[in-house]
Specification:
Layout lengths: L18 E17 H9 L2 E2 L2 E2 H24 L4 E14 L2 E15 L1
Antiparallel strand pairs: 1-5, 2-3, 4-5
Length: 112
């Protein structure tokens, strides 16, 4: 069973709790395919104020997936929480489109 997602924080500490043990790094990756021709056709209608809701929704879902996977991986090592979480976005481009890679990682910890 995964730890609650609200126990995954970006700070180096967990508010209101004392960290007793560090269990190592946990991580999760999510890859989004981008088809430039399909995205242009669908995205023209979607762009409002210079922002693409279609792409924002995809990135939001990718972040939620990464958080869920971090929670699962943390539970597998017996953690109570994950601290110092960071997300890194990378892009790989090709002729027919590309991919966006979202990687999330942090330190799994146990409370005292």
């Amino acid at each position: 069973m995964a730890i609650p997602v609200n126990r995954i924080v970006t700070t180096a500490y967990f508010p209101g709790r004392e960290i007793g043990e560090s269990l190592g790094i946990v991580g999760a990756e999510c890859v989004l395919g981008i088809n430039i021709f399909k995205d242009i056709a669908g995205g023209i209608r979607d762009i409002v104020g210079g922002r693409s809701g279609m792409h924002q929704d995809a990135l939001r879902k990718a972040r939620e997936t990464c958080l869920a996977e971090l929670a699962e991986e943390a539970a597998e090592v017996g953690a109570d929480a994950v601290v110092s979480v960071e997300f890194d976005y990378s892009q790989i481009s090709g002729l027919r489109g590309g991919m966006i890679i979202l990687a999330g990682y942090g330190t799994a910890v146990r409370f005292k």
